[in-house]
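Deliverable D5.2: sample structural annotation.
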Amino acid sequence: MKIPVRFIASRSAFYLFTAFAAITINFFLPRMMAGDPVTAYMQRNAGQITPEAERSLRILFGLDQDSSVWEQYSDYWQLLFSGDLGRSFSNGLAPVGDVISSALPWTLGLVGIATIVSFVLGTATGALIGWRRGSKADVIVPISTFFSTVPYFWLGLIAIAVFSSTLGWFPASHAYDKGSSPEFTADFIGQVIAHGALPAITIVIASLGGWILGMRNMMLTVLDEDYITVAQAKGMPNRRVLWNYAARNAMLPQLSSFALSIGFIVGGTIVMEMVFSYPGIGKLLLDATTAKDYPLMQGVFLIITMAVLCANILADVAYAILDPRTRQTEA
């Protein structure tokens, strides 16, 4: 299989422009908010910071009032190309990269695995329900859809009340036991799995309905196509027709949604991390916004933007591989 050069070039140009626009918005958006991190810090430490120290802080964070916004914008690009995301105002002037890297693995491990499991399980279940339309399996659709409509905040609290407080099956909060420190041991890994099981299950339950419903509806459309009738008329096994012909074409629209879901994994689920007190990127972004920590906000936004773009690139490649019409149209 050969992917046309024009297809690759057009997609590359589009995503480069999108990345440039997203980074530009990432720079200007925090500065459009009322106040700034230095002012907020001065208010919290009234009388403890001298004017000279305030000026030094503004220069450090690129908020020097003597420099124009365009000079700050130019400096921002120079720092990005050098790999410097700045220093976090709300984390003791720690490098933003270090702050993000300490929270990112927790989000990727929990939300990433839960999203992939939900997609695979929901897509496979939706394909089977669509293949056996009109059977008793259709009852799964309204049940899963109902759980998807329940606000996640309530779903998480109910899960904690039932499975943690009442039954005691899972810990109620945090990523590991209090008093423990992250280390690569069997005991610590067991703690992480135990603490992450309940949030992961709630994420799967909350998102499963959308995948099932979307795949089922696409299967109903695909099953009426002529190539499905021809494949069945040739005497092909039902399993081969289901997975190699029907499900393969029905899942194409699912890939776009899955790509966006994969991209937003980096952003985490803020509500989930608040309910379960989980130390992820979503909670980090919320804290940075509250503290008006520009460098940390920009760093988190940048990581989320790049993750979404990379996920969409992978979705385009998957489309080109699974659907030859995409390659022919772009060529």
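Annotation notes: The chain is about 75% helix and 0% strand. The first helix runs from residue 5 to 31.
The annotation will be released with the project's public dataset once the embargo ends.
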